[in-house]
């Protein structure tokens, strides 16, 4: 794999905990507005700039994207962000529940994504991809890294551990009790050693950030076709990613809500489900599936366990046996008429970290008709599916803890 060191923009050490924010896509605009309130340093003003406009402003208004660029430049002009003098790589460690996860921050190659060496495993939603492309195109920045996985490599592990034996540049604990530590690797010999080690890795995998990855590649291709424009340098050939070894990553469940039952009454819906599932009513007992082939469902104030009948799906096929596939193939498409989860406004996605209460509340309020809980995909399944060239439905994986945004920014103007 090709990776590149870069001169990152970073917050001052004394301001990093005030700058660092949750990723743009885990918060609604209202939640982001509330989280950033009273904090002029919050990186949400850059990553989710609609929060700096009146509530009625459309998030895709061109002025919103221009504000992202202006807000970041303001942080640079005020000295909140500084720029590293030398091309650097970065080591980023997140520790939650005493379990550290350590990644290498580097610029990944658009070429590797287009050739399939950076492998994807799920579909993107066109609106979200377009949003991030506009953000990159307007700011000429990657303001948030994507999360990549690679198969464990002893040589890289030893290099990373050696760097981690030195004092970090940043060390802080966020509001979710996650510790973030960050090292700058600017010694040219060490940088080249890591780059050479990465050259021996045959593939990396998009773990979290399909929309940002696709958007970065789209903008890179545009700029390559146009020649340098809008101040772009050769930086458009790369984009910022944090690369984690697969043995440090765990995928959590990513659940679904649907606004209506496609014209069916609840009893009729349950009867149709009975053709492909053994349906067990569990009442107030929430169902969080503990095995493949099982889906939890919350309908009209009641939880149900849906166990797929053996003849209804291919249990021995990795892709077909995923919870997201069973839900799509046996419920969403044939019964609820949701054929494209990227564009259908009736389906909503909720990370399992929010708990079953978040699902129940939205169904009980009448906002949603039904909720589904799913058995999570494993990192090994993700890699196997990507290696086979298969594509999962959108929003199939949820990773925790989330990377904090604003620790380092990549410029396409280099």
Low-confidence stretches: none
* Rg estimate, integer Å: 22 Å
Largest sheet: 9 strands, mixed
- The total beta strand count reads 21
Q: Sum up the overall morphology in one term.
A: globular
What is the average per-residue confidence, as pLDDT, rounded to a whole number? 94
Which strand-content bin applies to the residues?
15-25%
Tally of contiguous helical segments: 13
**Category from helices, strands and their pairing:** alpha+beta
Distance between the termini: 21 Å
- Percent of residues in helical segments? 25-40%
Question: Can you describe this structure in just a few lines?
Answer:
The relative contact order is 0.18.
Q: What topology does this entry show?
A:
Blueprint: E1 3-4, E2 9-11, H1 16-19, H2 29-36, H3 44-47, H4 62-77, E3 81-83, E4 89-96, E5 99-109, H5 110-115, E6 118-119, H6 126-139, E7 141-142, E8 146-150, H7 154-164, E9 170-173, E10 179-185, H8 188-199, E11 204-208, H9 210-226, E12 238-245, E13 251-252, E14 254-258, H10 266-273, E15 277-283, E16 294-299, E17 302-308, H11 323-332, E18 347-351, H12 355-364, E19 370-373, H13 379-387, E20 398-399, E21 410-411
Parallel strand pairs: 6-11, 8-12
Antiparallel strand pairs: 1-5, 2-3, 4-5, 4-10, 5-12, 7-21, 8-11, 9-10, 13-20, 14-18, 14-19, 15-17, 16-17, 16-19
Helix pairs in contact: 4-6, 6-9
